[in-house]
Design a protein that fits this description.
- This protein has 271 residues and is of the alpha/beta class.
- The chain has two domains: 167 residues, NAD(P)-binding Rossmann-like Domain (Rossmann fold), CATH 3.40.50; 93 residues, ProC C-terminal domain-like (ProC C-terminal domain-like fold), CATH 1.10.3730.10.
- It is 50% helix and 13% strand.
- Helix 4 links the parallel strand 5 and strand 6.
- Helix 6 crosses helix 11 and helix 7 crosses helix 8.
- The longest helix is centred in the last third of the chain and has 21 residues.
- It is elongated, with a radius of gyration of 21 Å.
Length: 271
């Protein structure tokens, strides 16, 4: 589906994630005149983009009902924001939420519609390399899903689920996952310093290593285990390091523990 044919899109919350999506939509063909940005305190970069592209920027939701309403505010403020939006949700309005932990039932109850899609994108959407997990409510039609899919894919990959409980797991793996990778770079650079390197050089090596490894994974269809094996010579340095990382108390169990903590918090936010 072309974004030129979607109709009016109102984006509530012009923060980093919301604007990452908005820029992706514009690049994919959404007409600036069809986009309305709603934010009471927009960053100056948002104001500049709205002025440059001719996008309508307002502090509160306009009176008219949009074809698509995208909720990109923090989950903690949803209870304050959503009741005021119920009056602008029309019979034609599809609602897409990117707020962590806020259930379909709560969204539907606040807004008075069952045409709701709950999603969890991640920050690489800012460079068009994001991945978004999505789950539709029962009232979402095949046409609605096509619209949501087109909007989500403007920022990267979209993966659909039938069971809402899986979105909490998506949050723990891909939603929060970029932070795990960034911390891995921090820790690896610190290990370089421990080995006697200068901090700047260690960070440069660790950062570029992850960038390169990700690019290789994107280019090579082999699974991650095969890629790991391809760089691991028997009895070599990588194999020696992997003995530590792959030990019973190594990286695998630690990541599983971290993911469980993230999922648990996502579930708490939805209560």
């Amino acid at each position: 589906m072309s974004l030129k044919d979607i109709g009016s899109v109102h984006l509530v919350g012009a923060g980093k994630m919301g604007m990452a999506l908005a820029r992706g939509w514009l690049s994919a063909g959404l007409k600036p005149a069809d986009l309305v940005l709603i934010d009471p305190q927009p960053h100056e970069s948002v104001v500049a983009l709205a002025r440059e592209k001719g996008i309508r920027l307002v502090s509160t939701a306009p009176g008219e009902a949009p074809d698509v309403l995208v909720l990109a505010v923090k989950p903690q403020v949803m209870p304050d924001v959503l009741p005021a939006l119920a009056s602008v949700v029309g019979t034609q309005t599809l609602v897409i939420s990117i707020a962590a932990g806020i259930s379909l039932a709560r969204l539907s109850g606040w807004l008075g519609t069952e045409r709701v899609v709950r999603t969890m994108p991640n920050t690489p959407a800012q460079v068009g390399k994001g991945v978004t997990g999505a789950v539709p409510m029962a009232g979402v039609s095949a046409a609605d899903r096509a619209v949501a899919d087109a909007l989500l894919r403007a920022a990267g990959l979209a993966v659909w689920f039938d069971d809402e409980s899986e979105i909490d797991a998506v949050t723990a793996i891909s939603g929060s996952g970029p932070a795990y990778v960034f911390y891995f770079v921090e820790a690896l650079a610190a290990a370089g310093v421990d080995l006697g390197m200068e901090a700047a050089e260690a960070m440069q090596l660790a950062r570029q290593m992850v960038i390169g490894a990700a690019a290789l994974m994107e280019a090579d269809p082999a699974d991650a285990a095969t890629l790991r094996q391809n760089v691991t010579s028997p009895g070599g340095t990588t194999a020696e390091a992997l003995k530590v990382l792959m030990a019973a108390d190594g990286l695998g169990p630690l990541l599983a523990k971290a993911a469980r903590a993230a999922r648990r918090r996502s579930e708490e936010l939805g209560q």
